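sorry for the late reply, my laptop died twice this morning and i had to redo everyting from scratch. anyway the thing you sent over, i finally got around to it. pasting the sequence first so we're on the same page, its 174 residues, then the predicted structure underneath. double check i copied it right bc i was rushing
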Amino acid sequence: MFRFKTLDNDAFYKAIEEKDYVRLKTAVISSIRNNPAFLVAEGQKYTEARIAMDILYEQVPEMFSEYKVLEFEHPFDEHERENWDKEYFLRQTFLLGENFCFDRYKNLRKIGKEIDKRSNTNFQVPQEQEPMEEKEQVIKTNSQMVPQKAKPLMLLGVIILAVVVLVVIVAGIK
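ok and here's the structure:
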């Protein structure tokens, strides 16, 4: 069993057991967003997102589909690299959630690497998340202050929730 550094291992493998496709897609998309340049950690052959995709394909292949152009999207075109920016990248991560397949993953990898190269963002390989001390996790309700270290985690939670809500809404429309 692979031990992820940036994903919650227990939640990931539990979602596989329960065939919770929404949670699994969200985990992969979060991993991609945490490492948009697809940098490989030292001692690893692949990114954690790729490893997650491989594990999912092996254990829950039914959650994958063939690439298809969705009604509301402009088809991916590798010759339109000048239009690739962070906004485009984020749209493509959403589309991966709607049409979960390796081709979209590969497109995201190309886009992320191109944006990193072009904008010289100097993305870093995501580091293992350190557990927060209990006192830093507490939100002070009387003063409405949030500890500095908790803010990025709250933002990530809000983003993940938004993606899940969008997936549920779009799935309900079909």
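Residues 150-173 form the longest helix (24 residues).
thats about all i looked at so far, will dig more tmrw
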